Amino acid sequence: MGFDRYVVGLDVGSTKIAIAIAKVSDESLDVITIATVPSAGIRKGVVIDMDAASASIRECIKKAQEEAGINIKEVYVAIAGGHISSIKSSGAVGIADGVVKQKDIDKVLDTAQTVYVSLDKEVLHIIPEEYVVDGETEIMKPLGMRGIRLEANVQIVTGSINAVQNLLKCCEMAGLDVVEIVLDPLVSSMVVLKEDEKEYGVILVDIGAGNTKVAYFKNNNFLGTSIVDVGGNQITNDLAVGLRIPVVEAERLKKAYGMRTLTDGNDDEEIELIGTNRVEKTVSRSLITDIAKPRCEEIIGLIKAEIQKLTATVAVPCGIVLTGGISLLLGLDSMVEELLNVPVRCGGPDRLEITDRMKNPSYATVVGLLYYARRELEQSGSLESLPGSFFAIKRWFYGIFGVFFKTKTR
User: Fold this and answer.
1) Which of 233, 278, 317, 407 has the fewest CB within 10 Å, making it most exposed?
2) CATH code of residue 146
3) pLDDT digit string (tens) for 359-386?
4) Distance (Å, rounded) from C-alpha 200 to C-alpha 204?
5) What residue numbers bound the domain in which 61 lies?
């Protein structure tokens, strides 16, 4: 390819803002830095205070620029939140010249997206599940095939217009041009899931501070997503209230002990902590677990319900892959496996080019954005900077699963 440039990913989360910078050279990707700062003005993945959110982004930009020694102007941004949903749709067209051309693929996807979308929603992605040529199913690349009738079964991902616009505005206020907004589970899957998992069937569960993202992949395709507004912050709040301690101390206990007493049996250990007014006290580890466990069970119950909606069964072939910061909660993976009766593993970014620090599951989204950006650049075949607006980007690009994505433009 012969290009040499930088790409930047921005993950705007409920508890942290993360920016990752990578240098793209030929077919390699060199992740230079990941900078994080506490977030403000964000709740459950949605902007609730424009000034506070943009200030947090600016702070993270400054930190990332100092660490990388470059100026940041353009970013790829991930989006999540309970307003995100996906629906199935299909379309069909006649193949004009008897051979499938790009114009036929464009036309059938245009036809497939002619479904009702409420006025407060915006189409973010149209992702083909499969193409069908004259009744022949499970075709991923119909270009050049002979036939009379072309069909497409797709997933249409939508999000709140206001949530999208507010996120774009915050980036603009922070001095950034947004190249593209991308669904969070799509980019996470690029660096967390293994090829055989995506082929035979897997559920990706990204548990963040403010929400939990559930996405289904099979036959190397994205087959739907659901995002619920419950996450690790609820566990922290339960510990803070139940133990009468500051939120900061509750967060420390959550990370240090989690659900570990479920697996090691050491539940009588006395834990020292700092209560209100900086007064030290001790509690048993079993009490920490007793408070955290019901909330974890609630989250797992919600995950189960969403999996059933997406797949009609919990027993997906390759099981479940947990990622996101809360996947590090000690004993949570065992708890999910026991309650859902499926194989479970925890996964972070798994690429040779990144350091061990960057393989932390809490960085799955922001590292995934870098690999997504590289794919986009490779398929564009151009080294020139893309237009500094999400709404000016090219209509078509080659997607992460070897099929065409379609991004709505205005």
Assistant:
1) 278
2) 3.30.1490.110
3) 999 999 999 999 999 888 877 664 343 3
4) 13
5) 4-82+161-191+350-401
